[in-house]
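Handout, page 2. Input:
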Amino acid sequence: MLSGLLIVLLPLLLGYLVRVHSSRWQHRINHAVNSAVYIILLLMGISLVGLENLSNQLAKLGGNALLLFSITTLFNLAALWWLSRRVALKTGQSPVVKDAPTSKLAAMQGSLLLVAVVAAGVITGLLAGPPLGEGLFSTADLLAEWVLYGLLALIGCQLRNSGMPLKQILLNRLGLAIAVTLALSSLLAGVLAAPLLALSWNEGLAMAAGFGWYSLSAILIGDQLGPLMGGVAFFNDLTRELLAFILIPLVIHRHTALAIGYGGATSMDFTLPVIQQHGGVACVPIAVVSGFILSLLSPPLILFFLSLSG
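Output:
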């Protein structure tokens, strides 16, 4: 039952053992991660075309993603609102952050680009058509699996060399509390959403364990449950980030923990400039710690829950 978990988790662990001191090599690793994500999402789009009755399947994908997103968001917002009421954190006005997005559209640019990559994969699969398409779909699945192994090793290396020592993480109690609150409320939502999505309880937990890391959750889920559910995971977590860009400026001064936490794993990268721009520098270490913990938890949790299917 756990052999599949070990096969996929092993590259992540091996990558985590690699210590990289050169900033140039760290930049190359970051670039390789981005490239691998684009490749796998392109291949996922191609695989979607291989599904029977594609139009109905895509409609099902959208409906399931909306359902999972609605339930997860409801639980996340309620839990983070409760946490915001219990902890006090004062935000401050800060100057515009260097390289921070100047508009919501600019902030969402990276997210929308990934959607475009999936769409490009779908178009490629449609243009291939039979009989070339059948061989293309099987090749896409096999290639995506091998690229996934490389991606996990690179992500493990990224996490090891992120500059976040364990002591710093544990001492930031608010960042830890936000991460735990977001994780637990997401997993509870996944259990409740599972029967509505015709999934087992552990598959529902896996779907909810992306914590906003849409590129990775789509890849891991798609590898185990097929491209349809991989698409559901992708759009569920992607929509979280898009809503976070809108939500953060509106609530960060009244409900700081909610604003920082809702973005999930993205609070340490994509949504961090927005958090700092509107909440001030006091929010930055909390957001980074929260996002880092969720990023560290997401891959092994997804793989563990999926391994329980066997």
